[in-house]
Amino acid sequence: MITMNKRVSLDDLSEQRDAQLALWPLAKENYSALGRVETKVFRLGDFPMMAMHNPARIKSTGAAVDKKSIEERPCFLCRDNRPEQQLQDTILPGWDFLVNPYPILPMHFTIVSTRHVPQSGLPLEAASMAEMMPGMTVFFNGARAGASAPDHLHLQAVMTSELPLLRIAEDNHPSGRPGIMSSDDFGLDLPFGFFSAVITPDDCGMGTLAAVAKAEGVDAVSEEPDPGLVNTFLWIDKEGLLRAVVVPRSAHRPSCYFKDEPDKMVISPGALDMAGIMVVPRREDFERLDIDGVKEIYSETGCRLK
Ligand SMILES: [Zn+2]
Domain limits at 282? Predict the structure, then answer.
């Protein structure tokens, strides 16, 4: 059991996950299957990433996220609709901490608001959650950037060490330079742009955090700014400082998602894909995905900052 408002170690979290898996065969099978997941490693300039063939993710990758489909289905994040085997813990008042039954990484949690309110923007509690869980990154999928339940506010958490994009931010944004830097300032060859923030525990840091929470992407079609087109990550770095990365998006899904078979590829990037773990549920897509395909997906769903 996790105690509210206290630091939680990776060991505590892994114990909590195992307690859940002991009670829920479906989740247990999906975590065991992660050990058998095939991967392909690509290096896009200065961005090392991998594609992962994970068949259990088809539900989320292929999820209908249009307004009508969302209104017509029972919300799977509301307490009353969750499977009875799913345990819940509280880390902060107003938030349920759950083991994600369809994991992408071996430690994968979903942190769900106790109220059915829309995924309208990054909740500032995400920063407190990151501070409570050193070693873990708390991340947010904007309503149009990978959230499979855009009608119910939620965050997720995975281990920071798994995410190549965050390593790039830590290696290139000096901790002695608080505030926001653009990835363009790093002088690296990257497939899309992002912002990195070092958030100090003072008024200046509060301003930085507010700016992070207000970040927007720009819709590739309408060219309008949209707060739903962002992926945001918050974590505590090795020096104990709070950091954030914001990836502004231009689209949720790349053009290959909408092609007819056999050209269709069911790839639907959320935060983890942008951080360097691209989820590919279908075997045929995984087999033919190559470096040019990955570059195209990033260029169609990420943003250039200039
Ligand atoms: Zn709900």
Answer: 10-301
Task: Tell me whether residue 1 is in a domain.
Answer: no
CA of 225 to the centre of ligand 1 (A): 26
Q: Is the pLDDT of residue 3 over 60?
A: no
* Residue 49 Cα to ligand 1 middle (Å): 33
CA distance 57 to 80: 23
CATH of the domain at 198: 3.30.428
Question: pLDDT digits over 9-54, tens only?
Answer: 999 999 999 999 999 999 999 999 999 999 999 999 999 999 999 9
Q: Examine residue 3 and state whether it is found in any structural domain, yes or no.
A: no
How far, in Å, is the centroid of ligand 1 from the Cα of 160? 27
Domains contained in the chain, number = 1
Q: How far is the CA of 151 from the centre of ligand 1 (A)?
A: 7
- Rounded to the nearest angstrom, the distance between the alpha carbon of 113 and the centre of ligand 1 is 8
| Cα–ligand 1 centroid distance for 150 (angstroms) | 9
Q: Is residue 306 part of a domain?
A: no
Binned at pLDDT 50, 70 and 90, residue 72 comes out as: confident
CA distance linking residue 153 with residue 298, whole number of Å = 25
Whole-structure pTM over 0.85, yes or no? yes
Task: Please report the beta strands in the chain, taking only residues with DSSP state E, as ranges in sequence order.
Answer: 38-44, 47-53, 89-90, 95-99, 109-113, 136-141, 154-159, 179-182, 195-199, 217-218, 225-226, 230-236, 242-248, 277-280
pLDDT tens-digit readout, 173-188: 999 999 999 999 999 9
Q: How far is the CA of 111 from the centre of ligand 1 (A)?
A: 12
